[in-house]
Amino acid sequence: MDEFNNRMDAQRNILNVINSQIDKKEELCGLSKKAIERWIVANQINSESAVCKILYLISEKLFFLANKSQEQISEEYRIVSSEISRLKFDLEKAIR
Prior knowledge:
By secondary structure, this protein is mainly alpha-helical. It has 4 helices and no strands. The longest helix has 21 residues, at about 75-95.
């Protein structure tokens, strides 16, 4: 259950970064590919921007963690978790 909480905390933190630092008419409500696509269209954001590319990478990594959450924590799981932390830092830099 701890892995689930860590993954959910990561998602909340990333959504908070986006929604508190980017002033748009519609907030990002999730980190699935479809939620990101909806946010991009609703806010007329360039889908090739650094922020969007980073969000898609984070989405892929979180999807991996979600599929691995029932397994024993592997080194690969730890690596992907670390990559998400790095991508969050990159996201904060891209927003500035």
